[in-house]
Amino acid sequence: MNILLLGSGGREHAFAWKITQSPSCDKLFVAPGNAGTAEIAENVSLKITDFEAIATFLKEEKVDLVVVGPEEPLVKGISDYILNDSTVSHIPVVGPSQLGATLEGSKDFSKRFMQRNNIPTAAYETFTADQLEEGLAYLEKQSLPIVLKADGLAAGKGVLICETLADAKANLKEMLIDAKFGNASSKVVIEEFLEGIELSVFVATDGKDYKILPEAKDYKRIGEGDTGLNTGGMGAVSPVIFADEDFMKKVEDRIIKPTVDGLAKEEISYKGFIFIGLMNKGDDPYVIEYNVRMGDPETQAVLARIESDFLTMLEAMGKGNLAEYDLKISPHFATTVVMVSGGYPGSYTKGFPISLGEGNDKSILFHAGTGRNDNGDLINTRGRVLAITGLGQTLSEALENAFERVEKVSWEGAYYRKDIGEDIQKLYN
Fold this sequence. Notes:
Blueprint: E1 2-7, H1 10-19, E2 27-32, H2 37-40, E3 42-43, H3 51-60, E4 65-68, H4 71-75, H5 78-84, E5 93-94, H6 98-105, H7 107-116, E6 124-128, H8 132-140, E7 146-150, E8 159-162, H9 165-176, E9 187-192, E10 197-205, E11 210-212, E12 217-218, E13 221-223, E14 227-230, E15 235-238, H10 245-265, E16 272-281, E17 284-291, H11 298-302, H12 310-319, E18 333-340, E19 363-367, E20 370-372, E21 378-380, E22 384-392, H13 395-406, H14 422-428
Parallel strand pairs: 1-2, 1-4, 2-3, 4-5
Antiparallel strand pairs: 6-9, 7-8, 7-9, 10-11, 10-16, 12-15, 13-14, 15-18, 16-17, 18-22, 19-22, 20-21
Domain ATP-grasp: 111-319
Family: Belongs to the GARS family.
Catalytic activity: 5-phospho-beta-D-ribosylamine + glycine + ATP = N(1)-(5-phospho-beta-D-ribosyl)glycinamide + ADP + phosphate + H(+)
């Protein structure tokens, strides 16, 4: 098979790493890719939202399968575009339809979907700019803290947890009136704050059947002890101790089945990944949000635990025969530590040469924001630069192997959190 993988982050390098292990993979193209994907696949300079150019490429290179990594092309309708172009409509796409991608593209749409399908989630109301006064009045009746969410895509930065009423009111005005998150906050969801432990659950579906992938817990804040600004993700661990058989049975019965059944019932075409952000509140799962693709950096830990042929699963998702796929998951641990440019998630300097040091078979190094300068040196090109996944039979062993590798990598201003997995480790002790 010839495969086109869209994206350029750590998630896509992990996808490429796993896809190229399959004997079914003849040629893997990654658009636009990064310095890591260039080592195991062919990077191509396609813009992930230039659907016309992508369709032309599919024809020219006789591509057999399209795998969409990030959410933007999905929300903009790439799956529909390929399906509606008769010259490429025979090529399966791993990624939902544009309507299906609205589960991530609009917080209000996803909350209404959950309501219609009796899926447990936090109480909420949605407001627009011309409903500002109603929104402010609604805030006065809510308990604190309270959550404000930009309705649209805001690069992971559109969720605010407000501790005081004054802070909530000020932020609501900034979001709706001052377009704090651009068009993404033209609508704002005001949501009840759920107290508990977060968990990421990943589901592969062909629209009829589904497979539950390894769960993970990620770490969003830049600072240790979960302090400071939100980021795209600073680390992840899998498996998660509290996601035992009983809890995951609740997740499947109350959330996964109603989600997949609801999509089918509402005739929403969905062949792709569903990333369910959950809160474990008193041993009961509640949906915080849906994402319509795999997470980053959770993917780097999750895929390291999948033992069966990943490309075969992707093909089964795209062709609608996932029921026949036998998913095999390792019981061992995988922990991911993300290394970022100094100053991230604020302003940072790009172009510093990176020294990778020596690797080992107990860790995997995934590239995210990397490239090459004119001299061919590996350099940092974005905020999140590398993700190192450690493997082990215990959580502590996996963490030790991850950090041992991290300590061998260096560039000017490199930063990482040293407490990834500590909270979960305490639950084991």
